[in-house]
Amino acid sequence: MEFSKKMLVLHILISVILCGITVAGTLLGLDVTALAVLSGTSLVTDGTWGGFYLWKSKNENRAKYAQRFLNRFADKYGADTALRAAEIVLKD
């Protein structure tokens, strides 16, 4: 498992634990205001990290598919044409 995926899983695990502790503390009648803020901040961090991970994966996949286009079509149609086809298909 790559580093960014490990960090995403770690952040989600920490958020789940913090939210669970916050709910348990609330049910027990404890003052969990600071913990609730920390839980919310952790959820925002998860969203940010998840967005980064998806962006990174998308770009890695685009590079991989461009290489596949080049490998499949370069001999038949030429490298220039294969690169243009890959650019059109993989355009964001």
What does this structure look like?
The chain is mainly α and about 90 residues long. It has helices at about 5-25, 35-75, 80-90. The mean pLDDT is about 85.
Briefly characterize the structure.
With 92 residues, the chain is mainly α. It has helices spanning 3-27, 33-77, 79-89. It has 3 helices and no strands.
List the helices and strands and how they pair.
Blueprint: H1 3-27, H2 33-77, H3 79-89
Helix pairs in contact: 1-2, 2-3
Strand content: under 5%
Mean pLDDT: 84
Distance between the termini: 27 Å
Helix and strand element order: HHH
Radius of gyration: 22 Å
How many distinct beta strands? 0
Task: Report the oligomer.
Answer: single chain
Number of helices: 3
Poorly predicted segments:
none
Q: Characterize the main sheet.
A: none
Instruction: Assign an overall shape.
Output: rod-shaped
Structural class computed from helices and strand pairing:
mainly alpha
Q: Helical residue percent?
A: over 70%
